[in-house]
Amino acid sequence: MIVLAGTIGAGKSSLAKALGAHLNTEVFYEAVDNNPVLDLYYQDPKKYAFLLQIYFLNKRFESIKLAYQQDNNVLDRSIFEDELFLTLNYKNGNVTKTELDIYKELLANMLEELEGMPKKRPDLLVYIDVSFETMLARIEQRGRSFEQIDAQEGLKAYYHQVHGEYPSWYDAYDISPKLRIDGDKIDFVNNPEDLEVVLSQIDQELKALDLLK
Ligand SMILES: Nc1ncnc2c1ncn2[C@@H]1O[C@H](COP(=O)(O)OP(=O)(O)OP(=O)(O)O)[C@@H](O)[C@H]1O
Ligand SMILES: Nc1nc(=O)c2ncn([C@H]3C[C@H](O)[C@@H](CO)O3)c2[nH]1
Prior knowledge:
- ATP binds at residues 6-14, 138-142.
- It comes from Lactococcus taiwanensis.
- This protein is of the alpha/beta class.
- The chain has a single domain, classed as P-loop containing nucleotide triphosphate hydrolases (Rossmann fold).
- It has helices at 12-23, 38-43, 45-67, 79-91, 97-115, 132-142, 155-172, 192-208, and strands spanning 2-5, 27-28, 74-76, 124-129, 178-182.
- Strands 2-3-1-4-5 form a 5-stranded parallel sheet, with helices on both faces.
- It is globular and about 50 Å long.
- The mean pLDDT is 95.
- Adenosine-5'-triphosphate binds next to α1 and α6.
């Protein structure tokens, strides 16, 4: 399983789609469309943060179990980043200490389940690194109404926090081999040559892991 990581709007879903097509494997997208809590969360984070965290964690676990069934399936965001969002929500007073503790216990239980599976962790994590300016531009360009910074006071500051958490999260990540992609410079969405460069970098990593001929 190849996992894509990165801040909101970094390009994970876009690269996941291209990578799945390239490797001829399945892509497990993050549960955004038909998510009954996400827009409520953006309207009222204090009320809905814990429910949203549980919603994403449950969906993530479901996707991981399915994704592990075949080599080189692609997962749009890692279970470890969910914890990054949780911690941030706790810091911001949207999640109580009791909720934080319950979530962490549940997560530990889920990770234990994964430890019991034939494949225990991702084969490769691909991190798309973008600047804060790029993050904002991509969120605006994608245009989900509830994510727009003019829709909600404090949203820009929240995005700044999320963006700020990622570099140290990525540096500390040691669960699997990892690859960083500069999502500011490499336009794998509009430039086929750039996409080719990224895909061949990933291919090389997979070959080194004996997951690609
Ligand atoms: N490298 C890139 N160059 C140009 N545009 C990009 C690039 N990556 C993504 N985009 C555009 O930015 C927007 C967000 O991309 P995408 O939905 O793939 O991000 P994401 O990381 O999956 O976001 P989220 O965390 O919210 O799910 C889309 O409109 C996409 O077309
Ligand atoms: N609060 C919160 N916790 C999560 O675990 C989480 N995972 C994703 N998201 C939000 C970010 C994008 O708007 C949108 C798509 O990534 O969903 C989250 N928000």
